From TrEMBL:
Domain GST C-terminal residues, every copy: 83-197
Organism in which the protein naturally occurs: Tieghemostelium lacteum (Slime mold)
Recorded superkingdom: Eukaryota
Residues annotated as domain GST N-terminal: 3-81
Protein's recorded name: Glutathione S-transferase
GO molecular function, one term: glutathione transferase activity
GO biological process: glutathione metabolic process
One Pfam family of this chain: GST_N
PROSITE patterns reported for this sequence: GST_CTER, GST_NTER
């Protein structure tokens, strides 16, 4: 009997949501352990190799670093691109989504920086992704199907509530609507609690 997979992170979407989405999309059973509050207990801290979350626990195996976890399950399910070029393009975009997410948390508490983030940084990233989707005929890694990079764009847009900013980015809007209406991810997202503001 296989050992249960446990994903441990705080009770928000944050850096774990892409991994949660991949696991959900491919119907991989997992225990979604959510740390309440901002401070994990000592037992959980001892599990985390770098004292950071998320981590994946499978029996005695601990896997840390959010994008390592996401890439592992994307690769395991042939969702990271079919060629080396596709994989590299997908990795580039996934990393960029995490840059945009990190920049939000870095700037959100400073009014001027927050304003610049939404008026300058976000449109710049959206414009780049839109151009890549155009050159890839609707697929960010230029293949013939979606990858975890497309899912990562959806994940960060939903998390940052950027949907209303997609009017000028029709290819990103199409991508977003694909995932939000997906037969598996759509119901999953409707079941998720709202993140604290």
């Amino acid at each position: 009997m296989s050992q249960p997979l446990e994903l441990i992170y705080f009770d928000i979407r944050g850096k774990a949501q892409l991994a949660r989405n991949i696991l959900t999309l491919f119907k991989i059973p997992f225990v979604d352990t959510r740390i309440k509050g901002n401070t994990p207990d000592d037992a959980l801290k001892q599990l985390a190799p770098y004292k950071q979350f998320p981590i994946i626990k499978i029996g005695d195996l601990i896997l840390a670093q959010s994008m390592t976890i996401a890439r592992f399950y994307a690769s395991q399910n042939n969702y990271s691109g079919k060629t080396f070029i596709e994989k590299a393009l997908a990795d580039e975009v996934v990393d960029s989504t995490q840059d945009l997410l990190l920049a939000f948390f870095t700037n959100k508490d400073d009014e001027e920086k927050r304003k610049n983030y939404f008026e300058v940084t976000v449109p710049s990233f959206l414009s780049t992704w839109e151009s890549k989707l155009v050159s890839g005929n609707g697929f960010i890694a230029r293949g013939d199907s979606y990858t975890f990079a497309d899912l990562s764009i959806f994940t960060v847009i939903e998390q940052l509530k950027l949907q209303e900013r997609l009017v000028s980015f029709p290819n990103i809007l199409k991508l977003f609507n694909y995932f939000v209406n997906h037969e598996i991810l759509g119901p999953y997202y409707k079941s998720l609690p709202a993140d604290p503001q």
